[in-house]
Specification:
41% of the residues lie in helices and 25% in strands. It has 322 residues and is an alpha/beta fold. The strands form three sheets. Strands 3, 4, 5, 6, 7, 10, 11, 12 and 13 form a nine-stranded mixed sheet that branches. The radius of gyration is 33 Å and the shape is rod-shaped.
């Protein structure tokens, strides 16, 4: 027996007439009569008695009616719930620690305000871990500052960023307007953990300029690194986007690298569908609705593209030695 049989039976019981039930359900009367016969044959009971050209439900029919109303009600609730679920747009967003700290809360807030049908899950870790989760299809899309290694992933530069040298107000650099590269030699630094895009870029700089530093703090939390700068007299190289508030209250001072070598972009990253559509936004195999979510994320990120310091903040200069 099917839900259709039960719905026809309920209509007959409620109207007391085969023809009235047929009109309510936009069916033919023979179709309604056949459905009632099917039920009676299936359960081996008589559901209605006809007296003086009227239908009267039997005791067995009344028991079936009570159960049918419950069953059809539960089925309709199931259908409604699943339809609402299908109207949702699930999106699993990964972000590297720097991006997650300084940007993604604002971006996700914008997305949820403008597209309330989205169900967003956010995962924050370093770039290396985010890359692996994308490859394992545990995330649909990501925004990272580090370099993506896998050729299976599309990486689109989209949000401007730059690393800056940061010192606290008790550090001797705080009184300077210019810091030279040679002055970093042997200095105490707070740095990010392995797998971080920020750390990788800074280590490449140190290696290419033959500079050796003392790693006094190593952490996967930008706030921990900032505290080491403010309270423990460490230096750090971190995203300019992370230091705006500390610069405003003058608890730290920043030095921008004059060559632009520390300039970079946060990148939108997602899995290629195949080798022939590297420039297309594509949904992961297990989520046909994620592609519009990725497009929405890209549009919102565009609003945060430009990297500007407030006028109250004056960035000093970090230079290579002459």
């Amino acid at each position: 027996m099917t839900i259709r049989h039960l719905k026809i039976f309920i209509a007959v019981a409620e109207t007391g007439s085969m023809s009235a039930a047929a009109n309510r359900l936009y069916l033919t009367q023979p179709t309604v009569s056949q459905a009632i016969r099917d039920l009676e044959d299936h359960y081996c009971v008589q559901l209605f008695e006809r007296l003086h050209k009227k239908l009267f439900i039997t005791e067995e029919g009344q028991q079936l009616l009570n159960l049918a109303l419950m069953t059809v009600g539960n089925f309709d609730n199931l259908e409604l719930s699943m339809q609402r679920f299908q109207e949702r747009i699930p999106l699993r967003i990964g972000s590297s620690l720097t991006v997650g700290t300084c940007l993604m809360s604002k971006v996700i807030s914008d997305m949820e305000a403008e597209y309330p049908q989205m169900d967003i899950y956010s995962f924050v870790n370093n770039t290396a871990e985010i890359e692996q989760k994308l490859l394992r299809r545990e995330l649909d899309v990501a925004v990272v500052e580090g370099i993506i290694e896998s050729p299976k992933l599309i990486s689109i530069p989209i949000v401007e960023d730059s690393l800056v040298l940061v010192c606290g107000k008790n550090h001797e650099f705080y009184q300077k307007e210019i810091v030279y590269a040679s002055e970093l030699e042997g200095r105490k630094f707070a740095i990010r953990e392995k797998g971080s895009g920020t750390r990788k870029l800074f280590e490449q700089y140190l290696s290419s300029h033959n500079i050796h530093i003392q790693t006094a703090w190593e952490a996967n939390c930008p706030r921990t690194i900032m505290n080491a700068v403010i309270y423990n007299n460490a230096l750090a190289v971190m995203s300019q986007r992370l230091v705006k508030h500390e610069c405003m209250d003058r608890s730290v001072k920043i030095f921008r690298y004059e060559t632009g070598e520390w300039d970079r972009h946060f990148k939108l990253v997602y899995l290629k569908r195949d080798s022939g559509d590297a420039d297309r936004l594509c949904a992961p195999a297990d989520s046909k609705l994620s592609a519009p979510g990725i497009s929405t994320l890209r549009a919102v990120l565009e609003r945060y593209r430009t990297l500007d310091l407030p006028q109250e903040i004056s960035a000093c200069v970090f230079k290579n030695d002459v």
